[in-house]
Every structure is written in structure tokens, then in C-alpha cells.
Amino acid sequence: MSKKIEALLRKALLEEGKMEYSLYEYELEEHIDYCYDGLKADRDDFVFVVTENSGHVAMVLIMPDKTVLVNEVARAKLSEFWQSNYSTNLKRLIPMMAKELASDSLFVNGVKTVGHKPPKRVWGKARS
């Protein structure tokens, strides 16, 4: 079962396949507040949740300001956050996602991002 789910996730998340809004409404919408509370408690930069049901995939991405992005818009924002690591990260996560989804759980992932600023250099005074 999880191999079938893996294939569906790959299509939806890596190959820009269609996701179902009605599945978001049916399985994810009611968990927004709970996931948002977890995001705040863990001090994550965002959290995304993925589900699969009857061959359909849905996803939600929740921001610290409680902005909620659904399906293709959520996928695009996740891709923007992860930039060149999007595909690599998802290839690592999809097997875990499939395992969680095959056991009738939602896949919930809080993410902390690393700033892209180089560390500040502190120069000491030259000795005479």
C-alpha cells in the first residue's frame, strides 16, 4: 500500500500533479488550529501537512502569521522556501510520508529555516 501512496505523492509533489481541494476540506481543514498551535510551541518557521485518500493527495502549509496555503499554492511556497533543495528534501521525505499515510495518519512536518546571511566577522584591533 505504501508504494502506491509513494507514487501518488511523487506525482503530486515532484511532478506538479493535481491535488484535490475537497480532500483538504475533508481531512485537513479541521486540523489547522492544532497544527498552528504546534508551530508556535515548536517555534517553527512553517508547518506543512500532507494527506492521501482514495488515490487523491492534498496538502496545507501554515505560516507563523496563520496564513494558510492549500495544495498547489502550498507546494509552490514550499518550493520557494526550499529553493534548490525542494526535490532532494521531498525525495527523502516521501517514503516517510507514505508510511505515515498508509497507517492512517496525517503527515505533519514543522520546519525551521536557516538564514542565508553570512556570519558577521568581528575584527580585533591591530597591535602596534
Structure description:
The structure is a single chain. This protein is an alpha+beta fold and 128 residues long. Helices cover 47% and strands 18% of the residues. It has five helices and four strands. Strands 3-2-1-4 form a four-stranded antiparallel beta sheet, with helices on both faces. Helix 1 packs antiparallel against helix 5 (86-102). The termini are far apart. The model has no long low-confidence stretch (mean pLDDT 90).
Distance between the termini: 72 Å
Q: What is the string of helix and strand elements?
A: HHHEEEHHE
Oligomer: single chain
Helix content: 40-55%
How many β strands by DSSP? 4
Rough shape?
Answer: globular
Summed up, the helix count is 5
Poorly predicted regions are none
> Widest sheet: strand order?
3-2-1-4
Radius of gyration: 18 Å
Mean pLDDT over the residues: 90
Approximate strand percentage: 15-25%
Task: Please describe the biggest sheet, giving its number of strands, its sense, and whether it closes into a barrel.
Answer: 4 strands, antiparallel
Structural class, by secondary structure, is: alpha+beta
Task: Give a quick precis of the structure.
The protein is α+β, with helices and mostly antiparallel strands and 128 residues long. It is 47% helix and 18% strand.
Protein topology:
Blueprint: H1 2-14, H2 21-28, H3 32-42, E1 46-53, E2 56-62, E3 68-70, H4 72-82, H5 86-102, E4 107-111
Antiparallel strand pairs: 1-2, 1-4, 2-3
Helix pairs in contact: 1-5
